[in-house]
Amino acid sequence: MTAPASACPPARPAPSEPPLGFVLVDAARLYRARIDRAFEGTGLGLTAGEARTLAYVDFHPGLRQSALAEKMNVEPMTLVGFLDRLEAAGLVTREADPKDRRAKIVTVTPEATPCLAGVLAAAADARREATCGFSEAEQALLRDLLVRLRDNLAREHRSRDEK
């Protein structure tokens, strides 16, 4: 059974270009695949998720695990898996927060320094390929717009989770 005509949105002519959301999802999927290939070629033995986690811990030292998950926009249990593997490899430590022993503070270890250099180099290679032909100003604008887009979506996601 079909919905009554009044319940359906009005028919629109097919656009000559795909909508922004489609382009964004396609670009994100392709970029993720490129990042995965970049990390596979490093010999570091890290997945893209582990490499991203290690970089976030380095960019935001001393965060609690819960705050790190929120900053990365991942579920806490997803982050735990990444941190378990990074800790087993000796690249991060988790220590009790002196203000709340139930919470864990995550930090990189000195042994992570060469690994982080490899992660950042692989990410830079993927970024250079993805932004080939972009000026520095265009790259900065793209980054700023994507950060705003991410923040808008994260805010909406958090408010929906709080209901």
From TrEMBL:
<protein>
    <submittedName>
        <fullName>MarR family transcriptional regulator</fullName>
    </submittedName>
</protein>
<feature type="domain" description="HTH marR-type">
    <location>
        <begin position="17"/>
        <end position="151"/>
    </location>
</feature>
<dbReference type="InterPro" id="IPR039422">
    <property type="entry name" value="MarR/SlyA-like"/>
</dbReference>
<dbReference type="GO" id="GO:0003677">
    <property type="term" value="F:DNA binding"/>
</dbReference>
<dbReference type="Pfam" id="PF01047">
    <property type="entry name" value="MarR"/>
</dbReference>
<dbReference type="GO" id="GO:0003700">
    <property type="term" value="F:DNA-binding transcription factor activity"/>
</dbReference>
<dbReference type="InterPro" id="IPR036390">
    <property type="entry name" value="WH_DNA-bd_sf"/>
</dbReference>
<keyword id="KW-0238">DNA-binding</keyword>
<dbReference type="GO" id="GO:0006950">
    <property type="term" value="P:response to stress"/>
</dbReference>
<dbReference type="InterPro" id="IPR036388">
    <property type="entry name" value="WH-like_DNA-bd_sf"/>
</dbReference>
<dbReference type="InterPro" id="IPR000835">
    <property type="entry name" value="HTH_MarR-typ"/>
</dbReference>
<dbReference type="InterPro" id="IPR023187">
    <property type="entry name" value="Tscrpt_reg_MarR-type_CS"/>
</dbReference>
<keyword id="KW-0804">Transcription</keyword>
<keyword id="KW-0805">Transcription regulation</keyword>
